[in-house]
Amino acid sequence: MSPEALERELDQLHSAAFGWALACCAGDRPAAEDALQASYLKILDGRARFDGRASFRTWLFAVVRYTAAGLRRRAALRRWLPLAALEARSDGRPDPVAALAGEEATRRLTTALATLPRRQREVLHLVFYQDLTIAEATEIAGVSLGTARTHYERGKAALRKLLGKEPE
Amino acid sequence: MTEHNDHDLEQRFEALRRAQFGVAPSFRATLSAARARRAATARHRPVGLVAAAAVIASVAIAVLIIRRKLPNDLATVRLNTPTDFLLALPNEELLRTVPELGRVTITLDRRTP
C-alpha cells in the first residue's frame, strides 16, 4: 500500500481510531493522542505493515492497542525512575474530553468504563462503540472467542451495575 | 454486534461516540504532531546516547574499583575456626600424597594431633 493510500485510509478511520485509543488509555486524552501519533508513525515509517490478513480497521486498531500498551508500560517504568522533571508538561488548554463531563449520561458512562477491567472495557468498546462483532473484537484484543465472550458478558453486567440499572 | 436487549447500552455508547467524534483532533493535526515528535526525538537521540554511555562507563568503573579491593586469589585466604581441629585426622598426609614403590615418604603416627 502506497503512503498516500495509507494516509487516506488512516484519515477515514481517524475518529474511530481516536475513540479506540481513548478506550485503550482509560479515557486519558493526552495518553490517547500519544498512542495515536505513535501508531501513525509506526505505520507510515513501515515499522507496522498491513499484510491484508484482516481488515484495515482491525489491523489499525490492533496497532493502536499494542502501541498504547507499550506506552503504558513505559509510563509505569518512568514512575519508578527520577525522570519526572524531564516529562513534558500540559499546555494548560482545557481538555475537550473532560469538557464532555457536562453531559451527565456521557460522564457516567466514561466514569463507569474507566473502572472496568481493561479487557472488559476494550471488548465492550469494540462491540458497542465500534459496532464490531465479538469475533472481530478477538482479533484486535488478542484473546480467544470464548474469553472475549466472557469479557463481554461480565463487562455488560458490571457496566449496568455501575450505571445503576438492572439487567433486562 | 449487540444483542436485542442491549439497546440501553447501545444508546449510551452512541451518545459517547457522537460526543468524542466532535472533540477528536483532526487527522492532519495528529499527523503533524506525530512528525514533529519524531523530529524532536531525532534531535534528542544523541543526548540520550551520550547519557547512556556515561551511565554504562560509570557502572564499569565502579565495578572495576570494587573488584580491585577484593583479594585476587581466594585460595590464599585461610579461615581458621575454633573447631578446625575436629577435622584433623592422624596421618592425613596419606590422603594427599601419591605413594611410591620402594620409598617411604611418611612416618605413621597413630596419635591424634
Average pLDDT of chain B, to the nearest integer? 80
Fraction of residues in helix of chain B: 40-55%
Low-confidence stretches of chain B: none
Strand content of chain B: under 5%
Give the C-level CATH assignment of the largest domain in chain A: Mainly Alpha
What's the gyration radius of chain B in Å? 39 Å
| Separate helix tally of chain A | 8
Largest sheet geometry of chain A: none
Apparent shape of chain A: globular
Describe the protein in words.
The complex is a heterodimer of chains A (168) and B (113). Chain A is mostly helical. Chain A contains 8 helices and no strands. Chain A starts with a helix and ends in a 6-residue tail after the last helix. The mean pLDDT of chain A is 83. The longest helix of chain B is centred in the middle third of the chain and has 43 residues, at 27-69. The chains are: A mainly alpha (168), B mainly alpha (113). At the A-B interface, helix 1, helix 2, helix 4, helix 5 and helix 6 of A face helix 1 and helix 2 of B.
How would you describe this structure in keywords?
heterodimer; A: 168 residues; mainly alpha; Rna Polymerase Sigma Factor, Chain: A; Arc Repressor Mutant, subunit A; 70% helix; B: 113 residues
